[in-house]
Design goal:
Olfactory_GPCR, 212 residues, mainly alpha, single chain, olfaction, 0% strand
Length: 212
């Protein structure tokens, strides 16, 4: 969370204070890389957290074995490594595309869809294809989270005491709220039809998934 906010907000605040909208080409590339790195890693960590909640509630006697320190380190390392790889691929792909539609990014930070709007004709299709692959993998993580919570809620509703159910729900609801806001706004930002696209709406949605 701190990483993704630190990538976008300080530069936006500085531009606002100095009454400018400028960012260098290398600065834009660095911002896109780090933003995509932190956002991807966060999403994978949220997926791991869903598994953690599932094991804690549905298999409490096996929690120490399944979620030991070594297992946690491996899953966290996989999340960060996957985020780094995706950020590297997307940044290299996006900035290898020739831009011929000006140099104005219609967003408060360097975002892939806004940069692709500046590309020449069909040269953006390679990056669009990579975004589709990433979207499919992200959808797989989303399905995993949903299935985990189906199992969790099924187990929680079987708990006889009201206090036990309340404790279980209080453990899961903050994570579920973050996942819902994060995933829904990203899906809307990247998959909304062109007819719904407007600078004001794009800004609000970007603020929701990148800052809030």
């Amino acid at each position: 969370d701190l990483g993704s906010i630190s990538t976008t907000v300080p530069k936006s605040m500085a531009n606002s204070l100095w009454d400018t909208r400028a960012i260098s080409y290398s600065g834009c590339a660095a911002q896109l890389f780090f933003f995509f790195f932190f956002i991807s890693a966060e999403y994978y960590l949220l997926t791991v957290m869903a598994y953690d909640r599932y094991v804690a509630i549905c298999k409490p006697l096996h929690y120490g074995t399944l979620m030991g320190s070594r297992a946690c380190v491996k899953m966290a390392a996989a999340a960060w490594a996957s985020g780094f790889l995706y950020a590297l691929l997307h940044t290299a792909n996006t900035f290898s595309i020739p831009l011929c539609q000006g140099n104005t990014v219609d967003q408060f930070f360097c975002e892939i869809p806004q940069i692709l709007k500046l590309s020449c004709s069909d040269s953006y299709l390679r990056e669009a294809g990579l975004l589709v692959v990433s979207g499919c993998l992200s959808f797989g993580c989303f399905i995993f989270i949903v299935l985990s919570y189906v199992q969790i809620f099924t187990a929680v509703l079987r708990i006889p005491s009201e206090q036990g159910r309340h404790k279980a729900f209080s453990t899961c609801l903050p994570h579920l709220a973050v996942v819902s806001l994060f995933v829904s706004t990203i899906i809307f930002a990247y998959l909304k039809p062109p007819s719904l696209s407007s600078p004001a709406l794009n800004l609000v949605v970007a603020v929701l998934y990148s800052v809030v």
